[in-house]
Amino acid sequence: MAAAAELPLDQLELLDPEIFLRSGYPHDAWRRLRHESPIHYFASHHQPFWAITKHEDITTISKQPELFLNGPRLFLHPRVEEAQNEFDAIGGFERPKTLIEMDNPLHRANRKLISSRFTPAALKKIHSEVDRIARKFVDDMLVEEEGEVD
User: Fold this and answer.
1) Deepest of 26, 57, 109, 134, by most Cβ within 10 A of its Cβ?
2) How many Å apart are CA 22 and CA 108, to the nearest integer?
3) 7-38 per-residue burial string, b: 16 or more CB within 10 A, e: under 16
4) Is residue 143 scored above 60 in pLDDT?
5) CB 125: neighbour CB atoms within 10 A?
């Protein structure tokens, strides 16, 4: 694949895991987008999408749920049609949405159900247990002599 600096912006490949495997994460492509077109629409990719590359823009967008929807999809996958066809072949399946994928009023109702568990006081109560579990996972991974941890 040509270097990110040589391609037209619309031809940058940001989603293909095979390219990540061969060339690593496309940091240069994202850097170029932030500089040249911080809010860029990719029409010709597997799934058309808007790449929002700057924190300030992401923050502004996330604070306007009436204007910017989280649905119909939040994440991109280069083989989403293939995966959906597999689900349909076994009788269909719709993955439940996570809170971050929901729009109001569903988002508001579900957030109300769990928000008390994520207050500073609630998190302080479970901090030592979360820390213990995290340390155990890391210790277990250090024992392994082979494999990757991503």
Assistant:
1) 26
2) 42
3) eeeeebbbbbeebeeeeeebeebeebbeeeee
4) yes
5) 11
Structure confidence by residue, pLDDT tens digits, 85-96: 777 888 777 767
Per-residue tokens: 114: 């769990």
* Contact criterion met (CB below 8 Å) for 59 and 88: no
Q: Distance (Å, rounded) from C-alpha 86 to C-alpha 17?
A: 19
Long-range CB contact pairs, 39-42, < 8 A, 24+: 40/9, 42/10, 42/12, 42/14
Comparing CA positions, the residue from 30, 27, 29 lying closest to residue 52 is 30
Q: What is the pLDDT of residues 34-79, one digit of tens each?
A: 999 999 998 876 678 889 999 999 999 989 988 988 776 666 666 6
pTM of the model: 0.62
What residues have CB less than 8 Å from 10, skipping those under 6 apart? Answer: 42, 43, 44
pLDDT at residue number 118: 94
